[in-house]
Design brief:
The complex is a heterodimer of chains A (224) and B (362).
Chain A: H1 3-33, H2 39-51, H3 54-65, H4 70-79, H5 87-111, H6 115-123, H7 128-139, H8 141-157, H9 160-166, H10 176-185, H11 189-216
Helix pairs in contact in A: 1-5, 1-8, 2-5, 3-9, 5-8, 5-9, 6-7, 8-11, 10-11
Chain B: E1 5-12, E2 18-25, E3 31-36, H1 43-51, E4 58-63, E5 66-70, E6 75-76, E7 84-87, H2 99-104, H3 112-125, H4 141-153, E8 159-163, H5 171-188, E9 191-196, H6 199-205, E10 208-213, E11 216-222, H7 223-228, H8 233-239, E12 243-253, E13 256-261, E14 264-269, E15 277-282, E16 288-291, E17 301-313, E18 316-322, E19 326-332, H9 333-339, E20 346-351, E21 357-360
Parallel strand pairs in B: 3-9, 3-10, 7-8, 8-9
Antiparallel strand pairs in B: 1-2, 1-4, 4-5, 5-6, 10-11, 12-13, 12-15, 13-14, 15-21, 16-20, 17-18, 17-20, 18-19
Classes of the chains: A mainly alpha (224), B alpha+beta (362).
């Protein structure tokens, strides 16, 4: 079993989930409650990774991270190594690729919260941020949890983007899904089967845990 | 002195609807200003402008000397900074919090002890004892209404905004809570703006009336004055009943109440819970008119008066009588010519006690 790849995948999935929590909550809040007319454009951009082939997304990311792009050059000047084919580059790609899996459940959960409750809270003197913590989050925790679990599981299983942006460098960009591919290419079906089974088991357990929790805990959680 | 609240603001919606609010509340103490009008007339939008939940596209709103909104200067005070109580039609109690936690929601600035004391005070004021730990879903409609009212009162707002506060309740609960509501508001000494499309509710709760139609204010003023003298036919039509006068209750016996209206005495069915004063509502078609002295009749009210105006309306004629108070009667054109009624003529108006509707007002 390729434990190095498993550790790397778990680290990537955890960091991606945390980054998407920080990024996705405000974005989903904006999508759920804005009255801007061009909101649909942002929705379309967020949903793009759902329909784009991973190779297309990976290609653009690779170009954007390369030493010919301003982003790539700036990163190289700052850190001394290229963004492409590094763990950081992989993380950035994962965040973009899993964005809809996080933001859509978040936004759907927020949109289900009656706007009147938010207005009631504002009129009772609470700021928008505190209203989010005291009203919106407790009433939509199930959607927030779903979004986080989906982004974790989805990152664990991504393949195409990783291959395009990260390549296949052991310990740096070689994730579990790539390891399975390598093992199959090497005709090592035994190792591939073990790794695949592990991925299947982890994915199932995470999803079963989430849905079980949602079923058992239908009541809202109070944060503050 | 400047009025407590001045609203002269306009909101334009993308679909072309325009709501123009132009009225004032003269003093900071207890008063209930009723925004009255058919549905779709813009009442709720006016309330939301006052709350800061909508931004005016033109004009300004000033309260207690502070500019709450000024479209020309781009000024807009958010609802958090207006110290007001806003009660929406749906109550919007937080479903995940207990009744006590709902009441305490806006009291974050107080110490824990002060907060507990304030919640206990509100629970007692609104008769919600024993329900503190229940969630909104476990409360009855009336209890929810009182809980939501308590939550808006908790922070001692300087202006109270109530959007159809009783419309979600069944009829008996409405009638009971209407009376309670005015008493609670009076005790709190807070100016209130209340939205309703129910005439009886407006009369029982209100001191001032702002009549709205098609997104603009048609008339505003002291409630009896507006009912007495609608400035245009739209207002009269919205207000609905031809005669609405305030009377003093002088006697209640055997289910019948006697009221003094000016010089006249009026006998009407007792609606129960009459205080010292009540509005007497009389529809024009319920007023019979006889010439000269009345003969025997089952009508309990016989009011001597004089015809002051005679206005043909299609097959009907609208008579305005002076019986010590202005009384309107609708009669057919035939009846009018048969009796030879003319302006200045002395007549007797006959009214069945059961046709008179009383609305308590204390």
């Amino acid at each position: 079993m390729d434990w190095e790849a498993i550790r790397l995948s778990l680290r990537l999935a955890t960091l991606t989930t945390l980054a998407l929590l920080a990024l996705g909550l405000p974005l989903a809040y904006w999508l759920a409650f804005t009255r801007r007319r061009w909101k649909f454009l942002v929705e379309a951009v967020v949903a793009l990774p759902l329909v784009l082939p991973p190779t297309v997304l990976g290609f653009y990311l690779l170009v954007a991270m390369g030493s010919r792009s301003p982003v790539g050059r700036a990163y190289e000047a700052l850190t001394g190594h290229t963004l492409a084919f590094s763990f950081e580059g992989l993380l950035a790609a994962s965040i973009l690729y899993s964005l809809p899996f996080t933001v859509q459940p978040f936004a759907a959960a927020f949109a289900a919260v009656d706007r009147g409750l938010l207005e009631a809270s504002w009129c009772l003197g609470e700021s928008r941020a505190r209203t989010f913590l005291r009203v919106v989050a407790p009433l939509s925790w199930a959607g927030i949890l779903t979004g986080m679990v989906l982004s974790f599981a989805h990152t664990l299983g991504e393949f195409g983007v990783v291959l395009m942006v990260g390549g296949n460098l052991p310990g740096r960009t070689r994730t579990v899904s790539i390891a399975v591919y390598d093992q199959v290419q090497a005709m090592d079906y035994g190792a591939a089967g073990r790794t695949a089974l592990l991925l299947l088991g982890v994915s199932f357990l995470v999803l079963a845990f989430t849905y079980g929790l949602r079923r058992a805990q239908r009541k809202p959680w109070t944060l503050i | 002195m400047d009025p407590h609240l001045t609203c002269a603001a306009e909101r334009r919606f993308p679909d072309g609807m325009r709501v123009e609010a132009r009225f004032e509340i003269p003093t900071p103490g207890f008063s209930v200003t009723v925004l009255f009008g058919p549905s779709g007339s813009g009442k709720t939008t006016v309330l939301r402008l006052l709350a800061g939940l909508e931004r005016p596209d033109a004009g300004r709103i000033t309260c207690g000397g502070t500019a709450w909104a000024d479209a020309e200067k781009g000024r807009h005070l958010p609802p958090q900074a207006r110290n007001l109580g806003f009660l929406s039609q749906a109550y919007d109690l937080f479903p995940h919090l207990s009744l006590a936690a709902n009441l305490a929601y806006g009291l974050g600035g107080l110490s824990a002890a002060a907060r507990t004391a304030r919640v206990a005070e509100l629970v007692a004021l609104l008769g919600l004892e024993g329900l503190e730990d229940r969630h909104p879903a476990q409360l009855s409609g009336g209890q929810r209404q009182r809980a939501a009212l308590g939550r808006t009162l908790a922070r001692r707002p300087s202006l109270l905004l109530l959007d159809e506060p009783l419309s979600a309740l069944d009829r008996p609960a409405q009638l009971r809570l209407r009376q309670e509501l005015r008493q609670v508001l009076r005790r709190l000494e807070v100016p209130t703006v209340l939205v309703t499309h129910d005439r009886a509710e407006a009369l029982q709760l209100g001191d001032r009336l702002v009549v709205m139609d098609g997104g603009r204010v048609c008339q505003e003023g002291e409630i009896q004055r507006v009912f007495d003298r609608p400035t245009d036919p739209t207002v009269a039509r919205i207000l609905g009943v031809e005669t609405v006068v305030l009377g003093r209750v002088v006697d209640v016996t055997d289910g019948l109440a006697t009221l003094a209206v000016g010089e006249a005495r009026i006998l009407a069915a007792d609606p129960g819970s009459l205080g010292t004063r009540a509005y007497v509502c009389i529809r024009g078609e319920d007023v019979l008119v006889e010439r000269g002295e009345p003969g025997p009749s089952t009508a309990r009210n016989r009011l001597r008066g004089r015809i002051t105006a005679l206005l043909p309306e299609g097959p009907l004629v609208r008579l305005t009588l002076d019986c010590g108070f202005p009384l309107e009667s609708l009669v057919t054109r035939h009846a009018c010519t048969d009796l030879g009624l003319v302006e200045g003529e002395a007549v007797t108006a006959l009214l069945k006690a059961s046709a008179i509707h009383l609305i308590p007002h204390d």
